[in-house]
Amino acid sequence: MKATAIPAERPAARDILEEHIEEMAFLWIQRRKLLFSTDVPLRRLPGHDERIDAHFDGLVVGGRESVEVALERLEDEEDPWAVAAELRTWLVIGAPDSATALARFESMPPELAPSWREALRWCDAATIERLFPPARVTALPPAALSLAVEALAWHELLPVSAATHAARHADATVRASLARSLGWAGMSEAAAAALSALVDDADMNVRRRARLSAGLRDAVSLCDKLRRARAGALEAFDLQLLGLFGDDADVKLLARAAESEALLAAGLRALGDIGTDDAIETLLRVLAVPMEEAQLAATLGLERALGPLAGEPGDDPKPAPPTDVRAQWDALRERLPRGASACFGKARPWDGEPRDEPIFWRWRGGLLRPSAETRPLTRHVPDGFWDAAPSIVAEPGL
Fold this sequence. Notes:
Elements lengths: L13 H22 L9 H18 L1 H11 L5 H15 L3 H10 L5 H9 L3 H7 L10 H13 L5 H8 L4 H10 L7 H4 L2 H4 L5 H14 L1 H9 L8 H10 L5 H7 L6 H11 L2 H11 L4 H15 L15 H14 L5 E3 L2 E3 L10 H10 L30
Antiparallel strand pairs: 1-2
């Protein structure tokens, strides 16, 4: 929402303002989980966002008192989601100037940079332009420049001159922020030209983010590049991308890569993401291998296609019995439409009622077939994505 001027002094219940901040942070965590839900349809998301907006509206009404509460909490806050909510309150309602905001950013621990990224995503465009005047962005020091590049790109405000500057920057965190942004809507072809160099950047964080952006812009070209990579050059993250952007033609490549101990988990998980008959049969063969590490990795890969097999989320996973998995797969395969893949126990592409299509299916479909509806979804990535190791811990600013 767009911030209003801070109202005149009025009595405010500080405990209510604190509750608004805490609830907004909690709802943001829930929203991250909803974005990758295998059950909840996209039509439920606007209602959730309305609840977030309602808490922020309450903070706007609180005016200066809300800002004071947020700043007091920031002094010793440790929860990264609460920090993000407090920062949004201060940055939008308190309207600090650029120098004041960046001074606070520089004074806070570097590990809270993701909280700043999350807060800035929820700010309005006018706030972003006040904090990071596009004409002065290139003069910022590296940490602040990294923050500014992503914030401006998120709000489709990043000028080509700033993108060009960031692409050539000596600091890898700046290049990584740009690389993360180049696949989003609003990035011009001139700015996106930087991808050709960044996808092979020496820094892992830069090239991983650049390769995702390259896939969002042209999935076919990205997969061709990864398929042509010399033996041993692919890393776990590349296998993850092949699982998301690739197809049945990548099954043999992924299976060979998974023969390496270092790539076992990522390769088998990617086969589960492919979800075709050939991919699942490959995983079932691995599941029968008398080696627990391989059996567990195959089980977790099969879960990507068939749904829960290894116990409740958060429990220590265990290898699934091959005969049980075979029966589950045979039953699902009979129900799959011709040409469909298995995805968490259902068909992909979605073959049910359109209004009931889970958000995760929309996210997956948007990776390959972007539309006005799916582009906002594909800016987000699941928890643990950048390490190619799925996590149940929600993190801000991913």
